[in-house]
Amino acid sequence: MDLLERQKDFFYSGVTRPYQYRKRALTLLKGTIKNNESKIMKALQRDLNKSDFEAFTTEIGLVYTEIDFVLKHLKKWMKPKRVKTPMTHVGSVSRIYPDPFGVALIISPWNYPFQLAMTPLVGAIAGGNTAVIKPSELTPTVSKLIKEIIDQTFIEDYIAVELGGVETSQKLLDQAFDYIFFTGSVPVGKIVMEKASQNLTPITLELGGKSPVIVHDDASLKLAAKRIAWGKFTNAGQTCVAPDYLFVQENVKEQFLTYLKEAIIHLYGERPLDNPDYGKIVSDKHFQRLVGYLNNGEVCYGGTVDEEKHKIEPTILTDVDRHQAIMHEEIFGPILPVLTYSHLDEAIDYIRRQPKPLSFYLFSETAHIQNTVLEQISFGGGCINDTLYHLGSPHLPFGGIGESGIGSYRGKFSFETFTHQKSVLKQSSRLDLPFRYPNKKNRMKWARRVMK
User: What letter does residue 356 receive in the DSSP assignment?
Assistant: First the structure.
């Protein structure tokens, strides 16, 4: 019997449904992660050169926060919700039951390989499902450790990890899972969606795209520069919600660029390539792709690369031709194109003509500017006067729109993603409204009275 069939049998046994089972599973998962925390940090350092601080704050700590939040609220979320019943249904009671889908397939990416495998898993467990995780082959140390952690914690019939490359993903996608949760690139997301359509499998796609930033002239420029540098160059820019390109109002461009350079030096030093805590590019293929972007504009700062270490300095590009590849492909690296605008409408118009971004960031201190931009630009989520921080709140749904994704998760939204809202009407046997039957006289009159 293959893994999918065994997990389906385990799910249909009903073991995963009770609150106590889900609570125990989440508690065990957190305990095993804590016991392996130093190993996780070492694995992230090996695959992506993440510092212990970055590994904890952007990967491990976020999983702890997610588990704690879910455990605090799960019992309440699981309760059937009673809703109103119309006059036409007098005598009946209506409820919505959060019903687990069954066996979930979680395909996770390489840029935050631990967190983006575990956070969806928390939602799948909370929802009462079983799950198969397919981590990325580009971060082999972390992927192997994820399998070790899951194998230490759960039986394979409940939670399993499948290692391998593209062939493994294709093999899994050919099977009839009950739910698919994919995090990765837009091109691969389209393939996953096509595969899911063959079995009409419900799906969440957490993709990416080009997340823009607008810096208006009323912004706190020095703080904006610091927060943009942090958001852009964390994990060497390999973050799906990292600022991808920046619009700065032309009358403050030079001042802002000065602050941005100062911020990079402050955060990473005069020689970032020698900074042991500065991240590396995950593979040679991605490194060479990013190097090719360096001639898509004028290097205003940075631009130095280390091919042996797969490192690229935090780089600012100006005088960027909007027809170049860097303005049409997700950068996913430490290169930031800077464009200018005279009037806000110019920046808004450009952004609206592009695919809807996963994230958007605005730096402005004026309420009407903030409201104007929020009303006129469609995006998955974002921040005003900050970058990335919306990602860390379990109270906010995280997800894209259009080409940047389908569906959302985090906190309660993860629970809702991994459950079907099953509608149930419980009818009384003591009362039977006669007008609904075809042999009732004057049934049209009665129907008009209650359905007007």
Answer: P
Counting Cβ atoms within 10 Å, is residue 141 exposed (0-12), middle (13-18) or buried (19+)? middle
Rounded CA separation 317/294 (Å) = 8
DSSP 357: P
Residue ranges with strand state E in 358-429: 359-363, 381-384, 405-406, 419-426
Query: Would you say 67 and 26 are in contact if contact means Cβ atoms under 8 Å apart?
Result: yes
> Does residue 279 contact residue 267 with C-beta atoms inside 8 Å?
no
329 assigned to active site:
no
CA distances for 308 relative to 99, 274, 355, angstroms: 51, 13, 35
Q: Give the containing element (helix H, strand E) for 5.
A: helix 3-12
Of the residues 59, 240, 383, 416, which is catalytic? Answer: 240
Assess whether 206 carries a catalytic annotation.
Answer: yes
Full pLDDT tens readout for the chain, 452 residues: 699 999 999 999 999 999 999 999 999 999 999 999 999 999 999 999 999 999 999 999 999 999 999 999 999 999 999 999 887 788 899 999 999 999 999 999 999 999 999 999 999 999 999 999 999 999 999 999 999 999 999 999 999 999 999 999 999 999 999 999 999 999 999 999 999 999 999 999 999 999 999 999 999 999 999 999 999 999 999 999 999 999 999 999 999 999 999 999 999 999 999 999 999 999 999 999 999 999 999 999 999 999 999 999 999 999 998 899 999 999 999 999 999 999 999 999 999 999 999 999 999 999 999 999 999 999 999 999 999 999 999 999 999 999 999 999 999 999 999 999 999 999 988 877 777 777 777 777 777 776 76
- Where do the domains of the chain lie, and which CATH numbers do they carry? 3-207+405-424 (3.40.605.10), 212-392 (3.40.309.10)
Q: How far apart (Å, rounded) are the C-alpha atoms in residues 200 and 261?
A: 50
Tokens representing 262 are: 């100062």
| Per-residue tokens: 439 | 């042999």
In this structure, what DSSP letter does residue 291 have?
Answer: H
Residue of 100, 59, 94 lying closest to 78 (CA atoms):
100
Joined tokens for residue 270: 């005069």
**Cα(first)–Cα(last) distance of the chain, in Å?**
56
Closest by CA to 421, choosing from 82, 98, 129, 95, is 98
Rounded CA-CA distance 8/102 in Å is 7
